[in-house]
Amino acid sequence: MNRDYTQRLIVQEVAPRDGLQIEPQWVDTADKIALIDALSTCGFTRIEAGSFVSPKAIPALRDGDDVFRGIGRRPGVIYVALIPNAKGAERALAAHADELNLVMSASQMHNRANMRMSCEASLAGFGDIVRLVKGSRASLNATVATAFGCPFEGRIDEDRVVSIVDAYREMGIAGITLADTTGMANPRQVARLVERVLGRLPADALTLHFHNTRGLGLANVLAAYDAGARRFDAALGGLGGCPFAPGASGNICTEDLVNLCDEMGIPTGIDLQKLIALSRTLPALVGHDVPGQLAKAGRNCDVHPVPEYVKSI
Amino acid sequence: MNRDYTQRLIVQEVAPRDGLQIEPQWVDTADKIALIDALSTCGFTRIEAGSFVSPKAIPALRDGDDVFRGIGRRPGVIYVALIPNAKGAERALAAHADELNLVMSASQMHNRANMRMSCEASLAGFGDIVRLVKGSRASLNATVATAFGCPFEGRIDEDRVVSIVDAYREMGIAGITLADTTGMANPRQVARLVERVLGRLPADALTLHFHNTRGLGLANVLAAYDAGARRFDAALGGLGGCPFAPGASGNICTEDLVNLCDEMGIPTGIDLQKLIALSRTLPALVGHDVPGQLAKAGRNCDVHPVPEYVKSI
């Protein structure tokens, strides 16, 4: 089978947001800013840098305003903010976020658990945000969470996911993310859904967000890439995770993804060596080991010294 | 893209051999036998149950003879033994192993480090083993280790791998395993090499052995399956590992692989629920957490109870 691996794969780094949001140990605002500034030098064109949520809902990200005001804005990098509601959108615009990412789950149960409202209430709120953002320089993205499965409801009807994508686009939201919030997607399902959605919007408007909860994150990336998707979320060190699967992996790991691309010849524009060095600072920052494997194993080209005894054989 | 997922994927369980061989904590012979006997009830048709190596070289597997004599032989299950040399082959035949698996690295450096001899000396030894096994009821398999990369030499010439496959087959060894010993393979390379090798032998003679050292194990399985490979090694819990990448993952995890197949509709004949229950006994057996993710995350269909507060939204 001959496949085309020449098309650039765009990695949106999400460790500062989806990675840090469940960390129990507080990460200082200055450390968050230093992490984002270091990420800005690695070749990313998109970084989800923080969130404008209620400090009660996600205390780990309560300093979103200070983070967005404190980071150095590297030309060519789009700094994205996650937004739960109109109040968050106002704060994000005031802090000059380049892009606002809204989120609603395909599953009613999960949206109620996560956003504490029905999907209908979420969509109505999105209308307010679209009106608020119109005329600003910020762009809009909206995420369909649990697009590949729900930890409460199980399977999610693909027609429902597609109809939410249509609803987002009809509201004037340009960017769409399909999120496998708790790592339930499989490559066959991913290929099918990506093909359907890419019949409705251009590849540069679609982001795939995979978690590695069941070890399939990178296989899902390849299936989506083969089906035409070009933009993927990933978190340095594989930070993040799912409160419903303690001990299991979180987001797909950025350096593991970039290594995959480097080895297959898929261009990303990202400096893997810098990324690994940065990832190795994470355990000290968050106070525990992280799931990413490249930082432990090294790149393929980082060969090991031959043991002494071999020389006499 | 329409791919065929109806062909059975055969999983050869290797935890009792490749999984346990690097464990520092001694696992009692009775516990090894109990593990293999439990695996025999899960639907596997092939289990690599132990090794007949020098007790000095691999002390963790010094009880291969007792293990093979102690296990219950379930009809339909082939019990495989890893063999380093003719002496090991004699022991394996005496203990009634169904299949003997020989191993040599494609990389000279790795073969010297691992087998303490040159590739030429390894191949000469294989000739002795082939003569020894001829006339017995045991079948033969030979592994090309470091077939996708070497931790000392880096890239491995594909022509060299193919020529070793040819040499094995010319010696009368029916089964061939291509092993990614330290997790350096990528899906593009896997597809290419599998296609080449399947031009020389039937699919039921080829096994792929992947490690998840850099997070690509299951993506490599899918690439190999898409290219026509049907048989794969995997270890319960993802046991095993690479002494050159401490902290990184070992063999691909059996239950994670079976979950992938179940979700994609690829038949395996293996009972995932039994496998997960068995995997959850491993940390107590080996004295540490294991890398497999299904045992932590559960299957997709193991849905979680909806939080109380959701009911009032």
UniProtKB/TrEMBL annotation, chains A, B:
Record-linked PROSITE patterns:
PYR_CT (PS50991)
Q: Which residues form a coiled coil?
A: none
> Example GO molecular function term?
hydroxymethylglutaryl-CoA lyase activity
InterPro entries in UniProt: Aldolase_TIM, HMGL, PYR_CT
Q: Which CDD domains match?
A: DRE_TIM_HMGL
Top-level taxon of origin: Bacteria
**GO biological process terms, semicolon-separated:** ketone body biosynthetic process; L-leucine catabolic process
Keyword annotations: Lyase, Metal-binding
Q: Which segments constitute the Pyruvate carboxyltransferase domain?
A: 9-276
Keyword Protein transport annotated: no
Family named by the database record: Belongs to the HMG-CoA lyase family.
* Record-given protein name: Hydroxymethylglutaryl-CoA lyase
Source organism: Caballeronia telluris
